[in-house]
Every structure is written in C-alpha cells, then in structure tokens.
What does this fold into?
Amino acid sequence: MVRIEHIGIAVKDLEKANELFAKLFGQPQYKEEAVQSEHVTTSFFQVGPNKIELLEATSDESAIAKYLEKKSEGIHHIAFEVDDIEAEMKRLAGEGFQLLNEKPKAGADNKLVCFLHPKTTNGVLVELCQEIKSK
Ligand code: CO
It folds into this structure.
C-alpha cells in the first residue's frame, strides 16, 4: 500500500454536510459525484495533501443506508492507494482477509476499488483504490 488516499464519512444529508465541512475546512468541496452502482452520492474535499469523501445513500439498498441504520453518521472507511489493485487483492486474500468484491469495481473519483470486510480488519472498513490511468 502506498498511502492513505482518503477517509470516507457517512452522512444523512449531503447538502447539509457539505456546508458544515466547507466551514470546517474553510473551503468548499471540489467535486460531487454519483456512483449509481453503489447507490451513493459522494463529495470530495481537499485538505492540504489529504482528501475527505462524504457519502450519502440514494436508496435503501445502499451500503451507506444500511450502515446508518445500524450505526450513526461518522467515519465509514479508510481508503488506501495501491499501485496494482489486482496484485494487492490477491496478496490480501492470501493473508486471510475477506474481500467484499472479487474483482476491482469502478468507484468515485476515477478509481478502481475493492473493500475488505471489517470483520477481518479489526472493525475497520478498508478500501483499496487504484487510479484509473487515462490512455
Ligand atoms: Co472511498
């Protein structure tokens, strides 16, 4: 793994959360993006070298909706940048971590992503992400 790429925060109301985090960081989000396959809308803030992702559910099927039902708003996942997501998925599966998707899938912000089940990572939902290189 290369570095922490972003921290994901689950929110109930993205519009309100955008306002709040814009006040907190002293600058607005730089991007808002729907990820239809995951039933979420995301927004991203740049804080110096770091990135924060806010996630709002757009349907009850969303993992974020289920998360908010069971828990409350707050830190949802930590995403780590990797150079070669397939190799890293293979390595981690071999180490006994449970992958939530068998193949990398398209995530927000031009990334291929894979999540690890929190029951195998001390309760932390871990996202692996690799930048999709434009040809
Ligand atoms: Co994320």
The chain has a mean pLDDT of 95. The pocket of cobalt (II) ion is lined by residues 6, 8, 53, 77, 79, 127 (CB under 6 Å). Strands lie at 3-10, 31-35, 40-47, 50-57, 74-81, 105-107, 111-116, 126-131.
